[in-house]
Amino acid sequence: MMSILHVNKENFDSVKNSEKTVLLDFYADWCGPCRMVSPIVEEIAEEHPQYLICKINVDKEPELAGQFHVLSIPTLAVIKNGNVISQSAGAKPKAEILAMLKG
């Protein structure tokens, strides 16, 4: 089973430069919509090992959240070849998240 990588500023560079398409899920433990998105993100991680699925806790990593101009959570960002190709705030259904990943 492909696990979800918890990202912090120490391991962010290796994530950003991954050969895989990366999904960043910016969340907080107290956020209701984040808790709705979380199982969907976990499902995608299990079903689609070709993607690198990451979670970033905005309370613990405010600098990373700032780097991505995260103003509300959950925010999902997709990185390909080190560049953000799409970013979207708010809870999303699985099909929409997969569409973001496919670009």
Structural class: alpha/beta
Distance between the termini: 24 Å
Low-confidence stretches: none
Number of strands: 5
Major sheet: size, sense and barrel closure?
A: 5 strands, mixed
The overall pLDDT, averaged over residues, is 95
Q: Which geometry do the CA atoms define?
A: globular
CATH topology label? Glutaredoxin
Strand order of the largest sheet: 1-3-2-4-5
Q: Would you identify the CATH H-level superfamily? A: Glutaredoxin
Proportion in helices: 25-40%
CATH class: Alpha Beta
The number of distinct structural domains comes to 1
- What is the count of DSSP helices, taking H or I runs of 4+ residues? 4
Assigned CATH architecture: 3-Layer(aba) Sandwich
How much of the polypeptide forms β-strand, as a percent range?
25-35%
Describe the structure.
The structure is a single chain. With 103 residues, the protein is α/β, with parallel strands linked by helices. It has a single domain, classed as Glutaredoxin (3-Layer(aba) Sandwich), CATH 3.40.30. Helix content is 35%, strand content 28%. It contains four helices and five strands. The protein has a five-stranded mixed β-sheet with strand order 1-3-2-4-5. α2 links the parallel β2 and β3. The N and C termini lie far apart (24 Å).
